[in-house]
Amino acid sequence: MFNYLATEYTILFSYLNLFNYITFRTGAAILTSLFFSLIFGELIITKLSQIQPIGQPIREDGPENHIIKKSGTPTMGGVLILSSITISISLWADLSNKFIWICFFSSIIFGLIGFVDDYQKVKYRNHKGIKASTRIISQVFISLIIIYFTQQLLSENYKSSLSFPFFKDLILNLGIFYYIVGVIVIVGSANAVNLTDGLDGLAIVPVMIVALSFAFISYVSGNIIFSEYLQILYIQNSGELAVFCGAIVGAALGFLWFNAPPAKVFMGDTGSLAMGGALGSLAIIVKHEIVLAIIGGLFVLETLSVIIQVLSFKLTGKRIFRMAPLHHHFEKKGWAEPTIVIRFWIITIVLALIGLATLKIR
Fold it and tell me: Taking a C-beta distance cutoff of 8 angstroms, is the pair 269, 132 a contact?
């Protein structure tokens, strides 16, 4: 909205030109989604509690202290996150930018899939939700739609390309096979964030760090001067995605206010799938799919721990970890929950620095 005002009325009111700057609107998007979360968070959490008398069902095979400490905590906190993002981008993003709509569509649709999953868990009072096959098939279908429309907006020269960090000229044109890579990125990202969301504050801060990193990547990718200097692909109009990332950062900060230990609300699949899907979509638009795997390496580790655990048990009958995902393994080893959470945050910060360094080391 404010971008429209700047475009139409700057001649009459010169100070409106401030709204033309992506950096200013990104900062404003952060503050808007943050304050929306803080102002309306309690109200939304109260409403969620009223429709969830027993809160989120806790895994019976999970850590014993979760049954005692986390029982009764409402889920579907992703509603607060998505509401904050929606208000923020409505005010500050350039709504004529189709990349904004693709990322917004991704977050909302993946959030709806997660909402249905959360609703099933609450309604039937178990932690299983909808069938895994149904959830994956729907995610794959949505991802294909996202990839198709993204490719319609990208240059023919690199719409199906995969860039490798650390190498300025190592770019593979995958053709039709890029759809497979894109689906893996989006669906993998969504479910990786979902698997990581197991402790208070564990997933939301890494989401915020990854979003902040991609705000920078989107901005430089959409600036022809910066992209040429860094020798990365120039993606016209992608700079506006920094505003979308800013909205995620602010919403994540606001949600953390209520999700910090002891959590008043869990983001649930509504939030984790929405955020993961949005981050995956961002990565394929700015052509930094592998960099997403680096910066979001914590999500990758959590996912790999589950895959390794399942394969090991099926092949040998033995478990590698005391429990999967990885954060539960450390809980079983006696680590305190805040210790695990903060150390995993530190790991994400380090990985983000490494991922951003790849922009220059080429």
Answer: no
- 77, 111 Cβ separation under 8 angstroms: no
Reply yes or no on whether the pLDDT at 55 is more than 70: no
Q: Which helix (H) or strand (E) holds 194?
A: helix 178-196
Distance CA 338, CA 226 (A): 39
Q: In whole angstroms, what is the distance from residue 48 CA to residue 338 CA?
A: 25
Q: Coil, helix or strand for 319?
A: coil
Q: At a CB cut-off of 8 Å and minimum separation 6, what does 166 contact?
A: 358, 361, 362
Nearest to 267 by CA among 323, 207, 309: 207
- Look up residue 230 and give its amino acid: L
pLDDT band at 67 (very low <50, low <70, confident <90, very high): very low
Residue 202 pLDDT > 60: yes
Position of tokens 């700015």?
286
- Whole-model pTM? 0.92
For residue 206, the SS3 value is: helix
3-class secondary structure, 337: helix
CA distance 165 to 270: 32
Q: To which residue do tokens 């850590």 refer?
A: 63
Do 309 and 320 touch, CB atoms closer than 8 A?
A: yes
Residue 362's pLDDT band, with cuts at 50, 70 and 90, is: low
d(CA 318, CA 324): 13
DSSP labels for 248-293? HHHHHHHHHHHHSSSPS---HHHHHHHHHHHHHHHHHHTT-HHHHH
Region 155-180: mean pLDDT is 88
Q: What is the pLDDT of residues 235-291, one digit of tens each?
A: 999 999 999 999 999 999 999 999 998 889 999 999 999 999 999 999 999 999 999
Instruction: Decide if 81 contacts 259 (C-beta within 8 A).
Output: no
H helix count then E strand count, the chain? 15, 2
The sign of the torsion formed by the CA atoms of 11, 12, 13, 14 equals: positive
